[in-house]
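Here is a complete protein record:
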Amino acid sequence: MNALMAMTEDTDQKLREYEELLIRRDQLYKDAASYQIAYTQEFGDLILENFKLKLVCIKKKKTISYCRRRLNRGLAINTDRMNAEIEAEMLLYHEQLKDLIGETDAAKNAKRSDEFKVRLAKKIYRRLAKRLHPDINKKTEEHEMLRELWDRIVSAYRRNDPDELDNLEVLVKRALEQLGEEGFAIDDTDLDERIERIERRINEILMTEPYTYGEILASKEQIKAIRNSLEEEKRDYETYLETLQKTLDDILSGEGVKLTWQMN
């Protein structure tokens, strides 16, 4: 009997450890998202400006390459066809630029939550996670109603919305009662392996972007260094663009170069 009690206590302790690790991992995900927004608010305009300059340089390089290929074959340069081909090749870059603009605008419009709301949202989330987290309660994935409630909980938690979480806690209690799952069975299989897996994931989050942005944003010296680096990158692009433009001008002003335009 004592051996059985010891095994039960060991399992309970591992379950508590597992729950705490899950909640910590989720908090780190949330912190990382917050750091990403803050980093974009701090450096987004410069990053966007540099990316636009990069695209101009890429387009200029493609133009030079197109012109050289045509001239090496003794062919005229049809500017309309050239522009159409290069624009087609640039589509993916334009999509990336569109996404970057969207991320930058979203970060600028993001609102900072006050500390009280952050702490209260975390407190309610911890209670709900221990009852409904899909990695703890197997029934969450099995019942659509519970799955939808969990999705709403995660969304409210990321927004630091304690009022919504408070409302959802009432709905969760009611839903579990309706399903007869008030005392749900906790999934305690392979706990050692699952604990080890989450610990590895936590370490990965702590060591990679965007979580590591938090350390940068906490240091005025590092913020200044990043900004200086981005400014230097901008100057490099501008210098490179001037070189590319000169190369293109030299090609087009060469002897025997023929430019044609399509006529409607």
